[in-house]
Amino acid sequence: MTTWLELGAGSNVFTPPDGALQITGDIDLRAEITPETWTPAANQAILGRWLTAGAAQRSYRMDLLTNGRLRFTWSVTGQSGAANISSTAPVTPPESGRLAVRATIDVNNGASGRT
User: Fold this and answer.
1) What is the pLDDT confidence band of residue 48, given thresholds at 50, 70 and 90?
2) Signed CA dihedral, 78, 84, 87, 92: sign only
3) 3-class SS at 19?
4) What is the pTM of this model?
5) Of all helices (H) and strands (E), which one includes residue 48?
6) Which residues share a beta bridge with 28?
7) pLDDT tens for residues 87-107?
8) Going edge to edge, which strands form the sheet with 70-74?
């Protein structure tokens, strides 16, 4: 079983649509990454279910921003009106550059809001 996948710059991995990826409730996204730089020239997608071409299917995504912060974005409708939140500080990776990153959302925190 492969546990580590190395991709070249500009590469990505794609999986066909599957019901298991169509999450409508709470979500916990995790990835272990070693980017070429933690302050990229352009925002870099880490993971997500986010298609904007053709019939837009926007669900969730996590990105590494040019300022070294992480951003979690989600769409309630799947089409537009996406919301996002960024980390308050840039990522400080260890000397190896490899780091586990995580974003979670509780879609109903019991107080008519999200956490």
Assistant:
1) confident
2) positive
3) helix
4) 0.78
5) strand 44-51
6) 104
7) 999 988 888 888 999 988 887
8) 44-51, 57-64, 70-74, 83-86
Burial of 99 (0-12, 13-18, 19+ CB in 10 A): middle
Q: Is 21 helix (H, G, I), strand (E, B) or coil?
A: helix
- Would strands 70-74 and 99-105 be described as parallel, antiparallel, or unpaired? unpaired
Distances from the Cα of 105 to the Cαs of 25, 62, 78, 92, in angstroms? 9, 12, 16, 22
| Alpha carbon distances (Å) from 88 to 56, 59, 74, 81 | 29, 23, 18, 22
**What secondary structure letter does DSSP report for 86?**
E
**Of 62, 45, 50, 48, residue with least CA distance to 101:** 62
pLDDT greater at residue 27 or residue 3: 27
